[in-house]
Amino acid sequence: MGIVTKSADAPTFEEYAGSAWPSLYRYAYLLAGNHADAEDIAQQTLVKAYRSWSRVERSDSPAAYLRQILTNTYLSQRRPKARQLELLTDAPPEPGHVTAAGPEDRMALWPSVNSLPPRQRAVIVLRYYEDLSEQEIADVLGCSRGNVKSTAHHALKSLRAALATQGADASDGREN
Amino acid sequence: MPVDIEETLARELREVAEGLSIPAMPRLPEEPTRPTRSRQPLLAAAAVVAIVAGAAGVVATLPDSRDAQPAGTSSSNPTEPVAPIPRSATTLAHVVDGKLYVGDTEVAGTWWSVRPAGQAWIAYRDDYTWWWGRGPQPNELPNGEDVTPKISPDGRYVAVVRVETGEGILTVVDTRTGRNVDGTPTNFGPVKWDVGAYVVAVTDDGKVVIRRGNGYLTWSQELVADTLSGQMVFAATSAGLVAGDVDGGQPYLASISERGALTRVGELPEHDDLAVSPDGAWLAWTPIGTTGGEVTSISSLEVGTLEGEQSATLTAPDGWQFKVRTWVWEDDNHLISTVTDDRGRERMARCRPLPAQCQLIPID
Question: Is the whole model's pTM more than 0.95, yes or no?
Answer without folding.
Answer: no
